[in-house]
Amino acid sequence: MVMEAMGPEEELHLRSALEVNHEEEPNKDAADFYSLLKDAEVPLWEGCKKHSKLSAISQLLNCKSEFNMSISYYDRIMKIVKNMLPESEKLPSDFYQSKKMLRKLGLEYTSIDVCENNCMLFYKETENLIECTICGHPRYKLRRNDGGGRKKDIPYRRLRYLPITPRLQRLFMSSRTAENMSWHVKGGDSDEMVHLACGEAWKHFDRIHPSFSTEPRNVRLGLCTDGFNPFSQSARPYSCWPVFVTVYNLPPSICMKRPYIFLSLVIFGPKSPGKSIDVLLRPLIDELKILWEVGVTTYDIFRKENFQMKAVLLWTINDFPAYDMLSGWSTHGKLACPYCLENSKTFTLQHGWKTSFFDCHRQFLPMDHAYRYQVDGLFNGRIETDPPPPRLSGEELKNRVSALPNITFGLRAPKHTISGFGKDHNWVKRSIFWELPYWHTLLIRHNLDVMHIVRNVFLNIFYTCMDVKGKTKDNVKARQDLELYCKRPKLRIQFVNGKLVKPRASYVLSKDQAIEVYEWVKGLMLIP
Known about the structure:
The chain is 31% helix and 15% strand. It is of the alpha+beta class. Among the domains are: 2-105, no CATH class; 110-157, no CATH class; 451-522, no CATH class. The strands form five sheets. Strands 1-4-7-6-5-10-13 form a seven-stranded mixed sheet. The chain has a two-stranded antiparallel sheet with strand order 2-3. The chain has a two-stranded antiparallel sheet with strand order 8-9. β8 (296-300) and β9 (305-309) form a beta hairpin. The protein is globular and about 95 Å long.
């Protein structure tokens, strides 16, 4: 955004945006931002053509962040650089002045103290407390003198929160993206699935909330999160959970580009937050409520007018374990499917001791389909006459979730199992997303990301077809269970000379066939 004013073509766009006789004057936040962009046109010194005042500060602050400079070291470098420049230079004198200049960008983040056990945030009404109200853990691990006669409190844990509202406003205040923020109105009319606006979930929401959809500049968002170890695999286990918010108004060519995927939360901790992630999502949910109910005054540089921008979170995107954490429905055990709910037909394998979803798919076929009546084609001796399980509406789900008891969050909280868990339901909590007023009206609330599905399905098929030892799903226990549930006499385990022998299956590649696959992969130009 800042570098938009750097270069002849971008400078022309900027000047035309600033000098044109607007139909409406920009609001105060937009005016502050445009004044900052004006500084980008000021050369670093008279006659300088390579750097402006703003570009120089941006690069110097970037170096400070990238190489972890101290403030005193940065101030020292600034003095040296200023002495090397001509007398007409306009470089700020120190770190404080540099930050003061960039403050109008609205890129601040908020540090919120967290209980060491993820029980609560020291936030809003609990901001001044010095210990957790749930587990009693102290808020600060050290209280020391900062050299000025004041005590500096160091908390055990902190949550970094980056508000998304200022960044959404910037998309409308930039001449590059303002027009594209309404692209979905025309792009969503396609009969082909070229954008999320072409999907039924998007159109369903527009029908339910016409007052929101009539303003094409209102923003649709998606949320995604996952945990990873930021250190090497040899280091001790550590869990870092970044929470990203994606803007879906933009065209598909730039919708998923890095500049338009906003980091909103950085959750640190030695362990995964688990179901206590709801505690840490509180600042984001509060901001999403405001963006839905009230909105924020935003200047649209393309239409040259101020408007009340609102936003909605359409769904989340994550892998299956994170689905558990965000939705409140456990994805383990026989009731793992969040759509079948208590109507699941899963069972536990007798030898493999794993939950199996085998032959749960026939109930979704048409009632007169031939596969429903195959006695020995799938599950041995069983035909399928049941209709598909009923799919609950958002209102019905909301009523169920509202009836769930409140639970105590935290890593050291006593284990509380909701009555009937694992038998009648798999609810472990009431998800914080149900606090959003529109959440029950969404057609899809949680999505599984394609990457994990494609990778896991591919590896399971690949290892099985290649008969990779220790990786294939076609092991001895699977063959023993196959004999119990399916009519596949050619695949049954055989005893040869007192040993168990697994007959070779038709789907397992021979050695020559495997080598041919390896040679094909080796010849692909896309693989380094």
